[in-house]
């Protein structure tokens, strides 16, 4: 058996698309393999960064994240026994998966510092792709809203770990995240209007967590890879994305792979084909993968939301 190596891929959620009713879904395809990323277990346990986000009133960012999770729970209650469980908050969360470690957690964090502001040009973390964890900073570029990094087994597509980062860095390099319902911001970005809505963004990213890919051809989808300033419609999970989740995790049955036809009366599953996950690969990644934001014999994949996103990582035997 060859030694396991980490791999990774990226997907991006961008801005500026009109809204329409979504009627389809895509699942994240394992690069060069005929199957998709899926959790082999029926519980996703996530831990929030105890630092939260300093630019929203009180703990409203936490409420927004929990509302996003509640939307996916509601879908699960209609068709599945998949559960979403919040674990204890975590200090200094580490994004990514370390093989054979007991300290791997699914984390959600706001990166409020840009790595370019704190990392010296000769720091080894640049080559190792570890600066984000070392300095708790955002290392994925100015044009990305968020990133989901998914680690999975290349031979099976089974997900081991999925972490979400938001680009909340300051001084114009990051995104202003908000939690209010209205009105859209016009001009000045404040916490009293909607600029980049946390719940809207988090609902999309949790779609990557459960193995859904972008649906660029269907505006209005929760998994649409773009978002307008002031947008909130992704808070409500569209019928296509809900069908993708239900088909992947049918109640009382094993998770389904792409190409299987679950006994749920649905049409044959659509999957993404081709490299790049419908978005650009982030600098420093080892391998571009196919569509949320795994290669594992281990594989890692990152999928971005275009000013939002997600990334997978795989292990290969």
Give your account of this protein's structure:
The protein is of the alpha/beta class and 317 residues long. The protein contains six helices and twelve strands. It has helices at 60-79, 115-118, 125-128, 131-135, 198-209, 239-248; strands at residues 5-6, 11-15, 43-48, 83-86, 106-111, 146-153, 159-167, 177-178, 196-197, 226-227, 298-305, 308-316. Strands 1, 2, 3, 4, 5, 6, 7, 10, 11 and 12 form a ten-stranded mixed beta sheet that branches. Strands 8-9 form a two-stranded parallel sheet. α1 packs across α5 (198-209). It is globular and about 50 Å long. The chain starts with a strand and ends with a strand. Residues 1-22, 264-297 and 313-317 have low confidence and may be disordered.
């Amino acid at each position: 058996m060859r030694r396991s190596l980490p791999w990774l891929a990226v997907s991006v959620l961008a801005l500026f698309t009109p809204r329409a009713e979504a009627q389809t879904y895509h699942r994240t395809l394992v690069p060069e393999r005929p199957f998709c990323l899926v959790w082999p277990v029926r519980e996703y346990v996530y831990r929030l960064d105890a630092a939260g986000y300093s630019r929203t009133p009180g703990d409203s960012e936490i409420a927004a994240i929990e509302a996003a999770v509640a939307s996916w729970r509601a879908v699960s209650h209609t068709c599945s026994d998949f559960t979403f469980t919040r674990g204890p908050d975590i200090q200094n969360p580490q994004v990514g998966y370390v093989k054979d470690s007991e300290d791997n957690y699914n984390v959600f964090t706001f990166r409020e510092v840009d790595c370019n502001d704190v990392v010296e040009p000769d720091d080894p973390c640049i080559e190792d792709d570890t600066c984000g964890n070392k300095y708790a900073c955002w290392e994925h570029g100015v044009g990305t809203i968020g990133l989901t990094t998914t680690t999975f087994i290349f031979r099976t597509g089974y997900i081991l770990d999925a972490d979400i980062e938001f680009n909340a860095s300051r001084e114009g390099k990051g995104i202003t995240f908000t939690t209010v319902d209205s009105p859209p911001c016009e001009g000045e970005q404040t916490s009293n209007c909607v600029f980049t809505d946390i719940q809207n963004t988090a609902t999309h990213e949790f779609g990557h967590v459960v193995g859904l890919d972008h649906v660029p051809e269907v505006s209005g989808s929760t998994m649409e890879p773009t978002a307008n300033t002031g947008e909130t419609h992704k808070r409500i999970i569209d019928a296509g994305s809900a069908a993708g989740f239900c088909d992947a995790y049918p109640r009382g049955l094993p998770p389904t792979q792409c190409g299987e036809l679950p006994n749920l009366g649905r049409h044959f599953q659509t999957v993404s084909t081709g490299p790049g996950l419908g978005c650009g690969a982030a600098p420093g990644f080892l391998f571009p993968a196919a569509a949320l934001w795994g290669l594992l014999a281990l594989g890692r994949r990152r999928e971005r939301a275009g000013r939002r996103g997600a990334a997978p990582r795989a292990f290969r035997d």
